[in-house]
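Record type: ASSEMBLY
Status: queued
Input:
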Amino acid sequence: QQQVKQSPQSLIVQKGGISIINCAYENTAFDYFPWYQQFPGKGPALLIAIRPDVSEKKEGRFTISFNKSAKQFSLHIMDSQPGDSATYFCAASISGTYKYIFGTGTRLKVLA
Amino acid sequence: GAGVSQSPSNKVTEKGKDVELRCDPISGHTALYWYRQSLGQGLEFLIYFQGNSAPDKSGLPSDRFSAERTGGSVSTLTIQRTQQEDSAVYLCASKSRGGETQYFGPGTRLLVL
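Status: finished
Output:
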């Protein structure tokens, strides 16, 4: 029940296309859902996060869509660029606690 | 300001040797995490420190792994009698009290031959 399932494992997108990464969870107590971006040789860095009181959050080309009833959330990267090529992790946590459950990651490659 | 730093950035060791990995969190951050990232895998939680509270060691994979945090700041992860399956990237992250964002260091890439 503590798992966060992430798909796909890898993704190749043409420049200018839309990249979509999906995550699903079971524990309805989760109330904070961040996405982290990791470039090769670097640690993950927070990209964008959402709480279940909204269905969508947008920051520039990055959008999180949240479906509370389906217990799913997804990251959409619009107008994908080669510089977006990285590994993306979704995560879930319960506010006030310290445990973060991370997905297994999606390796995104954007072709020039 | 400075982010989370880790040292060494790379470590190659022989099977059976002990290694020490260091993490310097962001100044003022009371929470500190260690994770292990194996090739193509997600982030495996190892241990969590919060201030002076007892750490959560529930993620440590065996008694060969230990960690300490001195003075509420720097942390050291020690792996004794290293095995080839210990080869991975070890990531440290810190977080302010009440904050939700974990700030990760660049990791230490450990290779056990």
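Annotation: Chain B touches chain A at residues 4, 31, 33, 40-43, 45, 48, 50, 56, 91, 93, 95, 100-107 (CB under 8 Å).
Annotation: The longest strand of chain B covers residues 43-50.
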